[in-house]
């Protein structure tokens, strides 16, 4: 509990960071994600976390055209997005709750990378024109209540024409029977179907359990009500993920 | 406990079998092995479980020259060794505690594949000239006491000039700090350093915890005392595993 409230991961909890750091050092590391129903699988992570722009899937590359001005990269990991945007001339603040991910991001050349969980963000870190949540990091919103709370906070940390560019996973786009069972189980417990309680494991490191939120486009629209943001664009991928580009609801109202 | 005593895995427990069956059906499946200290990693398994003879590491190929007559293949998995030996004209009984591994072995053409845990073996299954434990399956002996008990039983199930050809992992051949800590922990608990309590996980299937035994060459020699077998040959690999060829201790005594 202590660790959960602090949110910054301890060394023993920083499974993700160790994985990322080891992979950076040349170790063929595999990230394992465990769900609270016992489902376990490799994430396929490290390769994508380090992919250079040319290796990104098309929908992620297309999403870059929506990015403007000063950028906040939330859940930056080893910094693939931050590095690309820096090179394109953006001022970027890259944050992650994983100390070793931040260490790796710095070693790879991210100028401003800080250990900071999403829940500790406030206007004190400055103002942004774009907030990026890539690699399914929309999931970091955890649940509807927290998503709305964080989005309202984001509204105060951003310029009037700001956008949030978030990669989202649609949980219903699956053939895996265990995933469908998990959705039903979640609903029976009054949770959103795609509210996955997971933890990351790597060797002998294990993160605390945390909720990672997967939503369909329809669920996303509902979730945005009262958040201060509206769904301006979606970019489809070849798989179950999509990019949501959010703009400020107020700006729309003013325009109409 | 029930399941442990029965030893044959239920559907929910047959993580290994599901993995093997899915891989056979074309799914890119990853086997995950969890140890009771929390260490977790992919086994790298399925590819090697299905490897054709030409893809085997050299020490495994060389070990085939020790195989004679009727063969018992223990922990056969999807049957790579059984299939090779069948083709070479051997009569092979292939056994595994995993129902889906046996199903897969049969689908792949293993003539005589049976669901049978190592502990249920007895002279009733017939007499053999060679017993094979490949892919680190020496580990199935679990601990010294069980190893000696099983080896004495093997002696009664085999011809006078029979051999046991077992692949063994030397636990001390590692640079991983967590493994060394685990060895110390085991010793402090009166267990052999390499007596690893593990379980196999695949998606939402999890085997019961079981002991899988790793021993150095020296420990192996000690373990064989009073087992009815002696270490006749070892074949080194490029890694931490080696092949132990055991022949009957009595035959040697008679010869000397």
- N/C terminus separation of chain A: 47 Å
| Overall mean pLDDT of chain A | 93
Radius of gyration of chain A from CA coordinates: 17 Å
Task: Provide the low-confidence segments of chain A as ranges.
Answer: 1-5, 252-256
The helix-and-strand class of chain A reads alpha/beta
Tell me the quaternary state.
Answer: homodimer
- Largest β sheet strand count, sense and barrel closure of chain A: 7 strands, mixed
User: Number of helix segments of chain A?
Assistant: 10
Report the strand count of chain A.
Answer: 12
- Strand proportion of chain A, as a percent range, falls in 25-35%
Overall form of chain A: globular
Widest β-sheet, arrangement of strands of chain A: 5-4-3-6-7-12-11
Helix percent of chain A reads: 25-40%
Main interface pair?
A-B, 15 and 15 residues
Helix-strand string of chain A? HHEEHHEHEHEEHEHEEEHEEH
What brief labels describe this structure?
homodimer; 256 residues; alpha/beta; seven-stranded mixed β-sheet; five-stranded antiparallel β-sheet; 10 helices; 12 strands; globular; disordered N terminus
